[in-house]
Amino acid sequence: MKNLRKQWHLTQEELAALIGVTRGLLSMYESGRRQLPTPASIRLAELHLLLQQPSTSKIQPAVLLQRQQAQQTKTARLLNDRAGKAAMEAARAARLLDKMQQRYKQLYQKMLLIQATLPTAPTDSLQKAALLHMEVTVIDAMERCSPARQAWVAYKLATSKALERAALNAGKLIKGA
Question: Of the N and C termini of the chain, which has fewer Cβ atoms inside 10 Å?
Answer without folding.
Answer: C
